[in-house]
Amino acid sequence: MQTRASRHRILGLAALSILLPACGGPKSSSTSGPQGGPVPTNRITINLRVEAIDDAPVVVRANLNDGKLAGASYRLDGGDFLRACISGVCRSMADNDSIFTPDYIARFDYQAGVDYVVSFNRQKAQDAPDSRVKLPPGFSIVTPVNHQPVNDGDTVAFSWSPAGAPARVSLNYAADCTMASGTHTFAGGSLADDSDANGREAVPIDPVLNFIRSGATSNITRCSIDVIVSHELQGRIDTAFDHGYALGIVSHTVRLDYLPR
Predict the structure, then answer these.
(1) In terms of Cα–Cα distance, which of 7, 49, 11, 44 is closest to 29?
(2) Residues facing residue 159 across a β-bridge
(3) Are both 13-133 and 137-258 of the same fold?
(4) How far apart are CA 187 and CA 173, in angstroms?
(5) Which helix (H) or strand (E) holds 209?
(6) What is the CATH number of domain 137-258?
(7) Domain locations in the chain?
(8) How far is residue 115's CA from residue 40's CA, in Å, rounded to a whole number?
(9) What pTM was estimated for this model as a whole?
(10) What is the pLDDT of residues 206-215, one digit of tens each?
């Protein structure tokens, strides 16, 4: 396994990329185009995720934006709307009421190997009716157990079944550490990719702890380290969009409990 200490700042960078578009707030899908008309569909980027986390319902989440690093999301109005369907069951996707970066969400029961289809329906511009993605098969974490104690120098054996191929498998972490000063330090990032698709990875704890200590002004007294094992399939977006992505993700989380000796 290759750990990626240099990527431990990934969540911070992701947060930055979310905040940057927020600076200008969302734009209207129906009036932010040329001469105050609708934004042409071929100038819109769609970011689509269909995600099953642990045993929660499947969340279909779409964000429409201008595709720029410091750009803006679009709030749908003027009769524009998103709709998600699976196996003949369709639901309108509701705005999550975000002030800055509105996502559109629908929830379904989990079904593997079946297309979740998202359609963008418009009153005065081109429709994009066929963005789709499948979810990988479900899987179970075999080892370790939830709340397994860990300490400095430990390497934890993670295994899951089935192994996941052809889905891409990745391990990420999110840590919440209490410091001797009483403050909390949060960190997250990438741990490994199961590139050999054998359903197991060895995860050393020290890179996580060392990263947290690198910016700390007091000692760690305890940490909750959530390790997220994700199986991911790529879907496809409707060709009417400028660009974007469609991902189907099934993930499970195991919590490790760190107490220094």
Answers:
(1) 44
(2) 143, 200
(3) yes
(4) 8
(5) helix 206-214
(6) 2.60.40
(7) 13-133, 137-258
(8) 26
(9) 0.86
(10) 999 999 999 8
With beta carbons less than 8 A apart as the criterion, state whether 136 and 160 touch: no
Tokens coding 141: 């974490």
Tokens of 217: 């002004």
pLDDT digits (tens, 9 = 90+) for 22-50: 456 899 999 999 999 999 999 999 999 99
- Tokens 């709709």 belong to 83
Query: For residue 7, what is the DSSP state?
Result: G
Of 1.10.287, 3.30.920, 2.60.40, 1.20.1050, which CATH number belongs to 13-133?
2.60.40
Q: How far is CA 189 from the centre of its chain?
A: 12
Chain position carrying tokens 């990438």? 190
Instruction: Tell me the average pLDDT across 7-15.
Output: 41
Q: Specify the pairing of strand 243-258 against strand 220-234.
A: antiparallel
Listing from the earlier edge strand, what are the strands of the sheet with 140-143? 140-143, 155-161, 200-204
